[in-house]
Write a structure and sequence with these properties.
Length: 395
């Protein structure tokens, strides 16, 4: 096929042509001034996207999972206790990685349909008078379930409990598509990857670290070598890199932050909120429900749609790929077969979202679900017609 449909997987996301080209660079000497013109704006741009004045931005050739590993190995020591909630596939995997690194994870097992259980975090933080908990883990947006959690509320709990634990946040499927306030929430480590909100190919683990985190890195004792943030921080001021950098991807990152900041972060977040509300309107028009239960925790970047009991939700994903060449996300872990996911993060417009909704409708109707063709599209159109950015500007 000569044409390319947009993807509706929740990452890797669609790449604007200008970013794809930005990553396609002829070789340049990464020890030359030309690299400084790429690295410095990329780092400064990411700092703005996470809304921080002073965060140390560190970019490794890796993926989001590498970002998890870099965060824990740089900031923690063997046997350290961390507080985490297992409320989705990605928080589950991060917990697993912590355990494999010899950390003691105080795991809260909670419903995957709900955001992070604040009351349980509160109980455990207040009970920890000796401050044994060294870090609190938060998955801002559970990509597996379409449930977002309240990072600011976790910060308030830590402050209320006068607890010094580091606040480590997985922002892999939120950062650059949903509001992320590193400084306001006093986040110590924020983690993402290039292939989500930054709309780039897979290949960069992007970290933002607070001064407190950089301090913790001086005494942390878990093994780290390739992922040593101190080496990165040491070489960046002279635009160096401890090893050979992914220059093309970094150039893409520079350009991506220019696009995001050029659109205006608030406009980017509003766009995603608007697109998500159209998708949600479509889901209700189909007579289906989101897997997420609380409206306040509905994700603006991915919607996990529950299918009727006894129906294999993954068949929608397989069928849409085979018949229409359109990619949706399958359910993962505990929700495999029960949900299919519509990703709407990164480069996404109302019109692209409508094509995804229309495709999901066709696939579901083909598979015998009682979906009236056009019902979801019409519901989303109503939202988009009334809230289109240009319509708002012209009002
Ligand atoms: N955390 C979240 C919330 C994710 O959605 C993902 C991947 O989808 C990861 C972590 C892991 O990132 P990666 O696949 O880039 O290693």
């Amino acid at each position: 096929m000569y044409t390319q449909n947009p993807v509706f997987i929740p990452g890797p996301t669609n790449m604007p042509e200008v970013l794809r080209r930005a990553t396609d660079l002829p070789t340049i000497d990464h020890r030359s001034a030309a690299f400084a013109d790429i690295l410095q704006p990329a780092l400064a741009g990411v700092r703005k996207v996470v809304k921080s004045e002073n965060a140390e931005i560190v970019v490794f050739p890796a993926t989001g999972s590498g970002g998890w590993e870099a965060t824990i190995t740089n900031l923690l020591s063997p046997g350290d206790k961390v507080l985490a909630a297992r409320c989705g596939m990605f928080s589950h995997r991060w917990i697993d990685m912590c355990q494999r690194h010899g950390l003691q994870v105080d795991t809260v097992h909670s419903s995957w349909q709900q955001p992070l259980p604040l009351a349980e975090y509160e109980k455990r933080l207040f009970a920890d008078k000796g401050h044994d908990i060294k870090a609190v883990l938060v998955t801002h947006n559970e990509t597996a379930t379409g449930v977002k959690s309240d990072v600011g509320a976790v910060r308030r709990l830590l402050d209320d409990a006068k607890h010094p634990a580091l606040l480590l946040v997985d922002g892999v499927s939120s950062i650059a598509s949903m509001d992320f306030r590193m400084d306001e929430w006093k986040v110590d480590a924020a983690i993402t990857g290039s292939q989500k909100g930054f709309m780039l190919p897979v290949g960069l683990a992007i970290l933002a670290l607070s001064p407190k985190a950089m301090q913790a890195a001086q005494s942390a004792k878990l093994h780290r070598a390739y992922f040593d943030i101190r080496e990165m921080a040491k070489t960046y001021p002279s635009s160096g890199y401890p090893y050979t950098p992914s220059v093309g991807l970094l150039n893409g990152l520079k350009m991506s932050t220019e696009l995001l900041l050029g659109e205006g972060l608030d406009n980017v977040f509003k766009r995603h909120a608007r697109i998500a509300s159209g998708v949600r309107a479509a889901v209700s028009a189909w007579g289906l429900r989101l897997y997420a239960q609380e409206e306040s925790s509905f994700s603006d970047t991915v919607s996990a749609v529950e299918t009727p009991d006894g129906f294999d939700a993954t068949s929608i994903v397989t069928h849409a790929a085979q018949k229409y060449a359109v990619a949706f996300g399958a359910g993962l872990g505990d929700v495999a077969g029960r949900v299919f996911r519509i990703g709407h993060l990164g480069s996404m417009s109302d019109v692209m979202a409508l094509s995804g909704i229309a495709t999901a409708e066709m696939a579901m109707a083909d598979l015998g679900l009682p979906i009236r063709l056009g019902s979801g599209v019409a519901a989303a159109q109503e939202i988009y017609r009334n809230t289109a950015a240009s319509a708002i500007r012209n009002a």
